[in-house]
Amino acid sequence: MIKVGIVGGTGYTGVELLRLLAVHPQVQLTAITSRKEDGLPVADLYPSLRGHVNLAFSSPDKANLSECDVVFFATPHGVAMAQAPALLAAGVKVIDLAADFRLKDRAAFEQWYKIPHTAPELIDQAVYGLPELNREDIKGASLVANPGCYPTTMQLGYTPLLKAVLIDASSLIADCKSGVSGAGRKAEIGILFSESSDNFKAYGVAGHRHLPETTAQLQRFTEQKVSLIFTPHLVPMIRGMHSTLYARLSKDVSNAELQALFEAEYRDAPFVDVMPFASHPETRSTRGSNMLRLALHRPEVDGAPGNMLIILVVQDNLVKGASGQAVQCMNLMFGLEESLGLKHIALLP
Amino acid sequence: MIKVGIVGGTGYTGVELLRLLAVHPQVQLTAITSRKEDGLPVADLYPSLRGHVNLAFSSPDKANLSECDVVFFATPHGVAMAQAPALLAAGVKVIDLAADFRLKDRAAFEQWYKIPHTAPELIDQAVYGLPELNREDIKGASLVANPGCYPTTMQLGYTPLLKAVLIDASSLIADCKSGVSGAGRKAEIGILFSESSDNFKAYGVAGHRHLPETTAQLQRFTEQKVSLIFTPHLVPMIRGMHSTLYARLSKDVSNAELQALFEAEYRDAPFVDVMPFASHPETRSTRGSNMLRLALHRPEVDGAPGNMLIILVVQDNLVKGASGQAVQCMNLMFGLEESLGLKHIALLP
Amino acid sequence: MIKVGIVGGTGYTGVELLRLLAVHPQVQLTAITSRKEDGLPVADLYPSLRGHVNLAFSSPDKANLSECDVVFFATPHGVAMAQAPALLAAGVKVIDLAADFRLKDRAAFEQWYKIPHTAPELIDQAVYGLPELNREDIKGASLVANPGCYPTTMQLGYTPLLKAVLIDASSLIADCKSGVSGAGRKAEIGILFSESSDNFKAYGVAGHRHLPETTAQLQRFTEQKVSLIFTPHLVPMIRGMHSTLYARLSKDVSNAELQALFEAEYRDAPFVDVMPFASHPETRSTRGSNMLRLALHRPEVDGAPGNMLIILVVQDNLVKGASGQAVQCMNLMFGLEESLGLKHIALLP
Amino acid sequence: MIKVGIVGGTGYTGVELLRLLAVHPQVQLTAITSRKEDGLPVADLYPSLRGHVNLAFSSPDKANLSECDVVFFATPHGVAMAQAPALLAAGVKVIDLAADFRLKDRAAFEQWYKIPHTAPELIDQAVYGLPELNREDIKGASLVANPGCYPTTMQLGYTPLLKAVLIDASSLIADCKSGVSGAGRKAEIGILFSESSDNFKAYGVAGHRHLPETTAQLQRFTEQKVSLIFTPHLVPMIRGMHSTLYARLSKDVSNAELQALFEAEYRDAPFVDVMPFASHPETRSTRGSNMLRLALHRPEVDGAPGNMLIILVVQDNLVKGASGQAVQCMNLMFGLEESLGLKHIALLP
């Protein structure tokens, strides 16, 4: 059994880790920290866990995280970089669900996140935890930077096309929509029910932190300079993310070839479902599951396939977009089957 | 034109007052205070008011409230009692949307609201602002205590029966459901979208502040001691309140007589709609309007009308349950037509 | 492995059975019938099942249901009674999620459901499938009548009190609230998003089919004549049911004794969670899980515990209120652990 | 007073016309037809209209529409073309909220709407009812084709840029999102609450009927051939439409110049609100009002304004996107103030 610690178990990615790990056959939940809720049984905060999780939150200083095999950081940015060095030194593997180690460019990190990076020596060592594109590196990693939710959808949608040199990397447009849980469990006016229900809006159009992360990762797969317009929107639903990705084809290619390209790319990926051409994936088909589904569309122009390709991508932002993906990485890091403990079927309706 | 001031214009009852008063034909909006948002144009906080309200928030000390004809307090409990004495002394009428003057029993107020009452000399003078039961007193009032949202539904549902001595006042059960806006515009975890959407729960079952208010008002209409069980619930909708009121009949009375009783009681009330017997009123039929709708049901027992009467009552908690009722009171206080500026049709769908 | 057939797999209880059974360790999904969708892969209708269920719907005549060990009827009323006799004769166990065998009183069935009962000889043989109250009978049953969703909450809330002769059975009031999925997957105006979102209403107050079922079952546990007022309401959420049960105490009993009574009653019930006294259970704490949670409240009157007891009960109407309960029965009928394949943790948020 | 008839008053655009016209100071509601609901009081179907609308539905043959001054068609496609010729011949003005007269290209109409056009002689005479771009023509029109909801947002967002020859008309991308009421009041599975709540999806990506309408209208303002990618999505909210419009700038222009262009274009338009540069308009800021709000964004590339312009446009799809716009046209056709009876403030929260 893998002894698991979770730092910051009170937020949504924390409770989602608990939901997944409490029934994972190879995991023993060992410690859950929360400075604020020290001593409170986890199930008192989250009654959904009554009967499943008997741990109480403990303050970080009391929790013996160094006795764990792996520690997940479900914390705001800046926490993992402070605690990871000591844990790694003690032989504990670390998976950070925040952004501390997502950007290889330290200056870019400090510019976008407005905090100094206090463990720059670990940046190179950190492995970007997107298994579909980085599987082998993750297997050998001690420190994994779990991807952002939006970047997961954009990378899995665009990368096959970039690798095959089929699209113009300089004119990508990603129009993305997220459920409200993506904003976290924070007491903020803007995400109150009465503010965000029965409403739709864009936000952060001037610049969202997931842009540099995505651009840098996409750049790995093309020699052309990547230029990406990224427009996030807030949807009045709890969970779910839908990315509508636009790419201009730069080569003559048939719809069947495009479909085959994606199917080949993800043939062995247990959590990417390439739907039939021209499908309309729904976010609810992934609710509570670690599955990401995508489908290709190609609008006709004057009766013939045009040069604009649309990739529709859906996932549960808290599972494949966060905690599920982190567990998927853990499975790889410990030599387990990639999908162990992650075979939940989406809750529909 | 009536010069109107609003203290605390940033909350939901405040912005709802603005929506109603900005198009009221006899009102001139004069001052809107907010300590926190001093200087901010109201329409910057509430874009729905762009083009309709040109005022900016001003801090309470700068606003010349004493030059108004009437000041509405859309504030937390405790603010009106501090400022009302000076305004009243200056000849300004006051309508308090909070609870400062709702309870005639000062000790009860201090017990339920946990603050000392600092203007006890005004308690007797204050008129309870439920026009359907108190119309004449409101016309002559300088200080009006606008009722709570739940109490409005319970009083308008039970009072005709109490006045006609038809029910057992000692076994009333009110199972009430409110939309989330009733909790106000406060940065609290429990009313986040991700916490309260797709969810239903009771709250405050052990004791809600609207209980003593309702009991005291109902007691005015019966010699029997009123005993009321009041169970509030939170519904995942923004606006709307639905009260399911149970009363045990103490006399032999036909359904037609019961229906006639309610129709007679509210014949001249422009904002109470007695629907046909056995209707199922929907909250959305009142969304954005000042109308309260109710309908009677009487389940059969062994094929005959039983002795349990059910009164279903719906309203928009922010309009008839708060700001609309306050404007209705203002109309009466200034000798205007009771429904002036309040004839909005509900938004459906 | 138990070979399982499902008749009527296109509705919500059908797809929910599929979600649960597809990962049940002792089940082999063998046949799913739908006259209308004959030949359509199940996962084409429900993309959430892609990769989990490879069956296609088949028309009832083609499906070899008699080779199954058990057949679930997730159909409208009237279907199970037509097909059950032949299946039972062939040695196949039957679990009906509709009402065909819930009422022992055939005349009452025909009155409330407006269809003649075509298999009256099976009514006596059918076992009412509420494991917490009927566990031993279910173990030996060939034909199980799975309870209605509302009746499950009312029975589990009231029965311990009736058995202990602590309440007045003649004045029960159940104010119940259900998510919209309880109305099924039917093309009806009233359950459109634009009709039922951001709205709340009561329905069927004059008489709901779950009333005679509940009354008859409660009557088993008391000598007093049961009289129950049952008011169902529609909540703008997909899943979830919240019953607010009122009962008048007929004996002097302390809160601690009441709490102990419920804890003792459900000590060995894996799917009933008796929460601490005065808790407010939320429907979301059961979303997607087979757990039913309940909590007791007792409002004070004049500073002392009153004689009204309130029992708050929540469940997921599609799981414990329907398909999960049916699987729980199946486990018992086949000698498996009662909770096998049913240990899903609720999806929160 | 203008005598108004409505054909097809039972759908959402019909009831929205009633909400707006019932309080319009120059309108007398004269006839509302519905073959199916003949004889039913309108307020029985829509309790929100109780006390405001006393008419009953009448079957089309009984209603004396030819005595009206203007008739609105809130019907499915194909109805207006059948009845308009006789009404126009009788001197009655006609406003069609469906698509019968939106496309000047008859062949395109028949291709996209799959029905033959039975009144082709009226196509040329019909005026496209988008007041901001067609005001003078509407004033003199007898037959108005009210625009589609999506096309209204796309035209008001793109046209100022096309007129000023600032963008590449051949690479427009409109990523649009609509509330569920846009699908109408039809008994269809896909728009049930349990199907569309807590969910997000694209639909009709392969081709939506609003595409040819929009392209044709945009083409009027540019010599370049318009090519538009249009991706509609369904948002779990009742009302509201958000269009995220992408356009590639073809000239060197500053943000201030772009902002000034839009402000000048809509200076005299009472229902277009050009918000400050880089605002994030919310759909709820238009809920129930006839206002359309838009804002410009221009993502930076390498620290300088890039060549991609984003126009965010929001409206209430049932008001400015349908019935409100129709009333706005009526006002112009009858020489009234353009905003008469349309000054509703949006319902927020």
From TrEMBL, chains A, B, C, D:
<feature type="domain" description="Semialdehyde dehydrogenase NAD-binding">
    <location>
        <begin position="3"/>
        <end position="141"/>
    </location>
</feature>
<keyword id="KW-0028">Amino-acid biosynthesis</keyword>
<dbReference type="InterPro" id="IPR000706">
    <property type="entry name" value="AGPR_type-1"/>
</dbReference>
<keyword id="KW-0521">NADP</keyword>
<protein>
    <recommendedName>
        <fullName>N-acetyl-gamma-glutamyl-phosphate reductase</fullName>
        <ecNumber>1.2.1.38</ecNumber>
    </recommendedName>
</protein>
<comment type="function">
    <text>Catalyzes the NADPH-dependent reduction of N-acetyl-5-glutamyl phosphate to yield N-acetyl-L-glutamate 5-semialdehyde.</text>
</comment>
<keyword id="KW-0055">Arginine biosynthesis</keyword>
<dbReference type="GO" id="GO:0003942">
    <property type="term" value="F:N-acetyl-gamma-glutamyl-phosphate reductase activity"/>
</dbReference>
<comment type="pathway">
    <text>Amino-acid biosynthesis; L-arginine biosynthesis; N(2)-acetyl-L-ornithine from L-glutamate: step 3/4.</text>
</comment>
<feature type="active site">
    <location>
        <position position="149"/>
    </location>
</feature>
<keyword id="KW-0560">Oxidoreductase</keyword>
<dbReference type="Pfam" id="PF22698">
    <property type="entry name" value="Semialdhyde_dhC_1"/>
</dbReference>
<dbReference type="InterPro" id="IPR050085">
    <property type="entry name" value="AGPR"/>
</dbReference>
<dbReference type="InterPro" id="IPR000534">
    <property type="entry name" value="Semialdehyde_DH_NAD-bd"/>
</dbReference>
<comment type="similarity">
    <text>Belongs to the NAGSA dehydrogenase family. Type 1 subfamily.</text>
</comment>
<dbReference type="Pfam" id="PF01118">
    <property type="entry name" value="Semialdhyde_dh"/>
</dbReference>
<dbReference type="InterPro" id="IPR036291">
    <property type="entry name" value="NAD(P)-bd_dom_sf"/>
</dbReference>
<keyword id="KW-0963">Cytoplasm</keyword>
<dbReference type="InterPro" id="IPR058924">
    <property type="entry name" value="AGPR_dimerisation_dom"/>
</dbReference>
